[in-house]
Design a protein that fits this description.
The complex is a heterodimer. By secondary structure, chain A is of the alpha/beta class. In chain A, about 30% of the residues lie in helices and about 20% in strands. In chain A, helix 2 packs parallel to helix 9, helix 5 crosses helix 6 and helix 8 packs parallel to helix 9. Chains A and B meet through strand 1 of A and strand 3, helix 1 and helix 3 of B.
Chain lengths: ~475, ~80
Amino acid sequence: MNSSKPRYEVPTIVRNASGLMNKVGHRGSLESRTQIDGVDVDSLIKDFGSPLFVFSEGTLNRSIDEARLALEKHLPQSQLCWSYKTNYLGAICAIFHRSGSLAEVVSGMEYEKARRLGVPGNQIVFNGPAKSEAELQRAIQEGAIIHADHFEELRLIERIAQAARTRPKVGLRVALDAGIVPRWDRFGFSLESGVAEQAARFITDSPHIELGGLHTHIGTYIVDPRAYGRAATKLAEFAEYIEATLGCRPTHLDLGGGFASTNSLATQYQSGALVPRQEEYIREIGRALAQQRGAKLPVYLETGRALVDDCGTLVSTVLASKRLPTGRNSIVIDAGVNLLFTAWWYRLELQPCCPSDGFIEDTTVYGPLCMNIDCVRESVALPPLSAGDAVLIRPVGAYTFTQSMQFIHLRPACVLISESGDVELIRRKETLEDLIGPEIVPERLAIERARSNLSDHHDGLRDVRSGAVVQ
Amino acid sequence: MDTSHLGLLAISDTGFVFDPRTGHSYTVNSTGLTLLRGLKQGLTLPQIRDSLGATHDCSYDVSTDLGTFIKTLENYQLLGNSGQG
């Protein structure tokens, strides 16, 4: 190639449209970026393939430090709990545990994952609406911090405790109105309707279980920190009420998660870059609790998305560019909604890795799936991109990998870039064995028999085509 | 190929195109500008293709790109009556 000539750009003409600018809009990611934490994207693709999930340990550590400093300042009696469902890659969980986080799990699978990582049972917060008897038996035996979601669970825990002749502490998940929309009321016992009080009374009346903490999870991607102040006030007042009326002091308050990350919701007017910082949420909780008269209870937080989202990038490669019949430009990349489930409700950023001095236009970004729904971005301003060009999609640290699926394509490798710039493989690229390993093909459908049946079928078709009478 | 409408277009050196018949304006990139000017000058597509190949760093035959561009011009009704399908 002769580098003295300008790079060829596919001839493009677009009709100009007039309209109002978004007054809080921001420039798209038009600047090219060839490195992640000082590591060349080209070398990452060469060594680990494309697509590729890349996690930055430096970014993650800075995010954890930001939360820790805010907690020390506003909530000195507090404990971070790592929300496994947000990202349960073992290496990511290990970074959180190394920094002192408990594990917050919502299923037996996540519980087992935490235990295998070496987290003791008594450092696991067990939430979720679906805990089986066996899972609860284990959690009780291992001293996990359990938050019950419904009366069936309370009765089950009571039976298990009675049979095991233990007296475990059982916390309550409390659904409350923190003044936000949508209001989450499916998890736990409703405070305003009095059901949470009934649940607390159930525990204090039981000879087999004791009251543990009070937990609430008001929603996800909450952009108003004051909602956490209201939730903290309500939960603390409820704790005080329980102590006054039932003579039992809850062990802790758990304000759940839901702090917004810098990602932008698809329906959001403003950019995600403008959401409150972690400290703003924590400060509101601290202010609210400082005004309470009752005992100062330890506070647990399960903030996941805000901590981890920014540390994840998905490296992808352009497979083709295509001009749609409407005149709109489009590209096909090798990562679709199979890997980017979060693309359904977030406007993920796309950043080219090649020079972006060409003609920038609104582009639709499709994934590699043979499905019309496989659209990563309906419209994003991009420079001209050709097959083989790399693009970076971010932020994808939260929920993206845990919600990715083996659909049409297997899942790619995941790497972690350490603080010192080393690239470590933390999950290998999947193979077909990972997909078909659990499958069982009944003997009657074995390939030899299937082939024989297929052959008979084809013989029959041939007879019909040739006009032979099939008896 | 009917290119009679091309002569009516106002085309700036920076890639701004104005169609006085409809009032619509367009933005065209540098290679598209080369193509539009070539068509206005009466060059054939193979001639334009060779010219682009000589002046740009490209590893493949761009004929299909030129064909797609022509189709876009037809869709915008910028070429001539034959393009109005």
